[in-house]
C-alpha cells in the first residue's frame, strides 16, 4: 500500500476520535442577507464566522478536500493537503490540482505557508495548528467523520462555506435516496439469512473492522453481520489471530483498496484455506474512485451500494454499479469516465 494512502486513512480515524460525536445532518434553511458573514456550526459544535463569497480556502484535511471536489468547489482552493495532488482520479477531475500549494497534513502543517495564502477559511486542523491559524483571525472548520449523517453534515457545512449550498443539497438528496433504497430491501432480510462478513483492516489480513467504526456501520446498513461486530478497539480495527478467523468462518471477506495486504494473498495463504470465504472464492477488494469506498466521504454511498449488491445479488439485480459510477462521476465531479476507467474502479482498484 502506498504510504500516502496509509496516511490518508489514518487521518480519518484521528479526526473522528478528536472530533468526538459530530452533529447530525439536517437541511440548512438559514439565511442572513444583511450580514457580511455566514455563521457556520462546525462538526465540533463551534459557531464559526466565515465571510460570504469566499475567494480563497485552504484544506489541510484530505476528506475535506474530497468533499470540496464533490461539490465542484475546487476553484476556491488555493492551498491543499499533501495527499490529494498525488491522487490519479483527482488529477483527472482537476488537471490544475498540482498547481495548488501543498501545505502539509493535519499533524504536520506548514502554518507559515497556510497564512501566506491569506485564506478566508481553513478546512480541518486541530490542536496547536488550529490555534496558530485562528490567532491570526483566520477561521477554521473542524471535521469529525464516522457515519453517513456526518458525511452529509460536512457536505452541507462546506457547501454553505464555499457558496455551493444547492450542490450540497443535491448531493445529500442523492445519498439519502440511495440509503433509503438499500435499507428498504435489507430490512426485509432475517437475521438467519444475513451474510457474515469480515472486513480487513488497513495494515494486515489478521485484522477486522470493529464495533462502531464506519466499516461496521456500512456492513450493518448493507444487511450483513460483521463477524467482529462485538469487538472494540482503539481505532476502527483490531488485530486478530488466524484461530479467531477460523472460528468466525466468514462467508465473505472484504479487503479495502488501501490495505497493504491483498485479496490474492488471502486466497493463496495456506492458513486460510479452511475459511468458508476462501474455499468458496468470496474474497473481494473494495472498489475505489478517488478513495477506497469505505472512506467516510460522499463516494462511500457507492461502497454501500456495492456491498449490498455483492452480498444480495438477487435483491439488487436491477442495480448497475457501472452505471452508478458513471452517473456519480458526471453529476458530482463533472467528469465523464471511459468504460476502461469504470472497469478499473470496480474490478482493479489497486491499480489506481
Automatic annotation (TrEMBL):
Domain Fe/B12 periplasmic-binding: 56-315
Database matches in InterPro entries: ABC_Transporter_SBP, ABC_transptr_periplasmic_BD
Record-linked SUPFAM superfamilies: Helical backbone' metal receptor (SSF53807)
Protein name per Swiss-Prot or TrEMBL: Iron ABC transporter substrate-binding protein
Originating species: uncultured organism
Classification lineage: unclassified sequences, environmental samples
